[in-house]
Amino acid sequence: MGGYHQGEKLHMCPQCNRPVTWLGVGNIIDPFWKRLPRFFLYPFTTRPLLLMVVLSVLAALLSGSGIFGLFTAVAVWGIAFKYAYAVLQSTASGNLTAPKLDGRTLYENFGPVIKQVGIYVAIFFLAGIVFAKLGMALGIGFIVLATIFLPAMIILLVTTESLIQAINPMMFVSLAVRIGWGYLLMYFFYSILGGAPALLGRHVIQYLPPAMHVFLFTFVKIYYTFIAYHLMGYVILQYHQDIGYQVDFEDFKDERAETDAASPALDDPDSLLLRRINQLIKEGDHEGAINVIESETGEESITDSLLSQRYFTLLAMTGAKDKLPTHGRRHLDLLVRDENKTEAVDVYLQCLAVDPNFSPSARALFKTGAWLDEAGKSKEAIGAFNKLTKKHPGDPLVPKSYFRAAQIFNERLTNPQRAKKILTGLLKKYPGHDIVPFAQRYLQQMG
């Protein structure tokens, strides 16, 4: 704090003590296409989940024909869109946590929601003119283009707070062009989210008890609405410099701040060590950070996942190929313990690239093999299961590894002959194992 103006924040380089310039949130966050699972989990955080349940219950209890039913529907969806717009604004400003459920968020200032309705009214009005004056073909073309550029209009409404600018073709076309191919990818996901409730209603909800239909359909529509608006907000955040939207470093807040794994206690030894490590990393002293970790922990006694991840990343950055596989085994055990699938797969493949003979514990190999298969890396999964059977021949997980390998050969790699050979060998070698009935049944299903 300091400067010529009261309350001004000065950002200084910790190494040379000179002023630094903020490069934008886009340089420190994952691109939206790498974050898709988190978008689907976002509505299940406490605040939006509570709102979805309450609104869905109200819709189920108070829905019906007549003016009262119409009033209920308008109230439910008015509040839902008000919160969705708050989600969009909050995300775009850099706050990846869900907005609070207070009067300001839910009831005050419906202007942005009304303006968004104005976008749909403008599109509907212009479409009527095009259909009437220019015919069916051009009318359909207009609807298609309007649908493609609808997210750009909503983004403009957030960034400019002007309905006129939001429906100005010069503005929304220019914005889509500045975002580039990322806009088309966003629209692809946006269109899928828009059609998901109808598909669920047709193929799932209609087969459930009729008394639950209104509740479930309302819940699903609100759920996908929140995802879509969070996605659009994140796109604004990612491309805020390209579209001219101001996001300050102080406003950025990751959603992990709301989880139980938020910042540890300040006097926690691992927390204190992490602060020392982070400072050395900021100063560019990666070797010094490695030396501090090794001297303070003895390296083998690292039990904190975050500290272990820091050490692994530092070893990879400095090209310490002799230490990377050794720590990789311990780090992979921690990732498996925490069920961190994505990072476990990345660490395993990274260590394997450095050392083809890389061999983690049997449990880590079994778990990682399954997660590799989930990620579509079938050949790598087979390699993990084969490594388990060769490096840990006496481990109880070996028969299960043979069975999983057989499944992958049959279902993923279209090699049923190899699968049958593995299963036949499994039945002969482990006749009394618990996996035998499953293997026999699987062989029968294969024919």
Report on the structure:
There is one protein chain. This protein is mainly alpha-helical and 447 residues long. It folds into 3 domains: 25-257, no CATH class; 263-319, no CATH class; 321-446, Tetratricopeptide repeat domain (Serine Threonine Protein Phosphatase 5, Tetratricopeptide repeat, Alpha Horseshoe), CATH 1.25.40. The chain is built from 21 helices and no strands. The protein has helices at residues 36-41, 46-62, 66-92, 103-106, 111-134, 136-160, 163-166, 169-179, 181-203, 213-238, 240-243, 269-282, 286-297, 305-317, 324-337, 341-354, 362-374, 378-391, 398-411, 416-429, 436-446. α15 (324-337) packs antiparallel against α16 (341-354). The protein is globular and about 75 Å long. Residues 257-266 have low confidence and may be disordered.
Short description:
Helices cover 68% and strands 0% of the residues.
Largest β-sheet summary: none
Task: Write the element-wise H/E pattern from the N-terminal end onward.
Answer: HHHHHHHHHHHHHHHHHHHHH
Report the strand count: 0
Overall shape: it is globular
Tally of distinct domains: 3
Transmembrane segments: 39-61, 67-88, 109-131, 137-158, 170-193, 213-237
Organism: Desulfosarcina widdelii
Pfam families: TPR_6 (PF13174)
Protein name: Tetratricopeptide repeat protein
